[in-house]
Structures are given as structure tokens and as C-alpha cells.
Amino acid sequence: MANYFRRLPNLDYPSLLKDRESNTDFVQTKNLFRRAKIREDLFANFMQFDKYQIIGDERPDNVAEKVYGNNNLDWVVLMSNNIIDINNEWPLSQYQLNTFLNNKYTPQELVSIHHYETLELRDNKNQLILPAGLVVDEDFNLEYLSGGQVKSTNSLVDGRPIKAVTFYDHENSLNDEKRNINVLKEEFLGLFLKDFKKIMKYDKSSQYVNRKLKRTENPRIK
Predict the structure, then answer these.
(1) Which domain holds residue 18?
(2) Per the structure, how many domains does the chain have?
(3) Structure pTM?
């Protein structure tokens, strides 16, 4: 991420240091509030992004090394998914996940039922009757037409098409969903870096010093 912070513009901020020489002293710092965000609708553009599944304990720098051959572009991987809080928005390693679960739940809670989900159900012509993954009640029942007859999921020989999902299963599923990310295609990387550099520059305003620096208001000299 150091590569990202170097690309941020600067701020002249009133010094809060005890050893400042006067109330007019400023300290130059990075403008952490300056942030670019990729529009959500662009993620559906297959021309610019590829789908990527995070494997094992891969970190953003590992993904950047694999995709771009440069682990310093980890921030591009994060920006390509609008990830701000890596601790909560990036998948946990198995060790981290186990630690999280042990701190959040008791052993009894982990194996108790969180919710029920549907299993895929098709008729004898392989037509989809019920998709998998819908959250339903324990007593869920579906009546459907098959072969000109009304049938019920309660009368299925192999049992109703639902499964119990424990708290452990649920948390694992949430963590696994985070493994599916977007990665900017390498051929668009140069354009992305160029646009990012342009966006990070300041426009002229009352605080403008130059394209890479602006000075904030100093309340001490009012």
C-alpha cells in the first residue's frame, strides 16, 4: 500500500506539534480524504475486468504479483473492488476465521441452526422447479405442476428439498463469498494509473497551492 500513499496529493495542515515555532507553522501530510472510487456499473464491463477467486491465504499483494507481476500494485486490486477496510472486506485465512468464530460463538452455537436453504429441484424433464440457495422456513413446502399433476415437495421420496445451515456453515459461506473479486485486466492498467494520477490532482480553489498541494484553513490566525 506504500505505493498508493505516495500517489496521494499533499495537504498543508496547521501544526499541532508542541515545538512549533509559531501559530502560522504548517505540517505537510498526505490527504487521506482524497479517494477515487470505481463506479459499480463498470464491474459488469467484461472488457475491463476479469473475475478472480482468491485461493487459500492470498493477500492483495499476492494477487497483484500474480496478475500484474508487481506486488506494489496491491492497491489496484483493492480499488478494483472498492475495498476500504481490508480486515472486514477481504477473506480471512482459515486460522483467522477459526479465531474469529471461537471469539464470537460458543461450540454449541456454532453447530446450531442459523437458517434453512433450498436445494435445487428439477422435474423429470430436467426443468428447474426450485433454485438452490433460497432462505426459507423449516416447514417450507412447494406445490408445483409436473406431468399435468400437482405435486408437493412434502411428498418427495427423498425428503423435502431444503437443508439446515449451521452458524459455522453460514460464517464460512460469508467468508468464501469474499473470495470472488474483480481484477482489472493488465492491458487497462496503464490507462487506470494515468487516470488515477489525474484525479488525484487539485483544481484551483481558495486552498490551492499547486496541483499536488493545497493549504487548509488555520483557525489560530483568525
Answers:
(1) 2-91+179-221
(2) 2
(3) 0.77
